[in-house]
Predict the 3D structure of the following.
Amino acid sequence: MKWWSVALSLVVLLWGETRTYAAGDIFEQASLQGLKAVQVVVENLAPDVTQDGLDRTQIKAAVEQQLQQAHITVEAQAENALYIHLGTIKNEAGLYSYSLSLQLLQLVLLFRDPGLVTWGTTWSLSQVGAITPAKLRELDSLITRGVNAFIEDYQTANPTFQ
């Protein structure tokens, strides 16, 4: 195992969880106004975390259900994507360091060249921490809370859709 993964685990353990929440950012909320549908993309998980119990397909299905229950349309080919990345590193002691990122990716035009269309992150939330394999399922609840923050911002930007 690389020395930096052990060092990161120690820093996270000693420092505790570090959270950065986007909820309430006026510009990020404004980017959600009029959003019609999203697709959910969950990045592949590390093999060790799947062996210890997390499942990418289950995470995707749970997020889609959560969005649908909040009356946010989920479409497989939507132009906008709620992108979820859960990066994990398991150290020699068996402790996972994790980095969770939720981003809304939308097609955007560049101001300097309006003819150029690209993906841009218009809403985001991230968190890092450490967790034992026995509590790995708690990462599901962190994802749920992140999606709730997205839903709250969506509903603030679209009050008629509640």
Summary: Helices lie at 3-15, 26-30, 47-51, 56-69, 138-157. The first helix runs from residue 3 to 15. Confidence is low (pLDDT under 50) at residues 3-23. The chain is about 35% helix and 35% strand.
